[in-house]
Amino acid sequence: MFHSEAELTVSVPPRTAFSFVADPYNLVKLIPGLLRVTEVNERSDGTRRGRYEYELAGISLTGAFEDTHYEEPALLVRSLTGAVEGTWRYRFEDAPGGTTITHVAELEFPETVLDRLPELAVQAYVDGEIQTAIATLRAFLNVEQ
């Protein structure tokens, strides 16, 4: 299991930050390896599920995602199944002048990835994806004022 986390503070209220992250189509803008999100269905409780296509070091990985914990505007847990298994967890907390977002990824990759890349390289890639996602999220949310 690969674990990575990051935190940022943005200058929008928690509900605005939550709404942006909860929209799976916005994640394609944030996560460099996430190529596509398709077949998104929104349920009556606001949770969503759909399909993803992700690329890690030239290896195409596909699967499904589903919001498994949805407490607007405080917590979103998105579970992944398929080629990549695990969760993306986002916590949103009031902060002076905005919202602190904590993003935690816990992911398992298939043997097709682990046979081609050393575990330290995969961890570095996951850490880089999280850091890029956080930096890009900061840019999107801080200009939405």
UniProtKB/TrEMBL annotation:
CDD domains the record matches: SRPBCC
Domain of life, source organism: Archaea
One matching Pfam family: Polyketide_cyc2
SUPFAM superfamilies, alphabetized: Bet v1-like
Protein name: Polyketide cyclase/dehydrase family protein involved in binding/transport of lipids
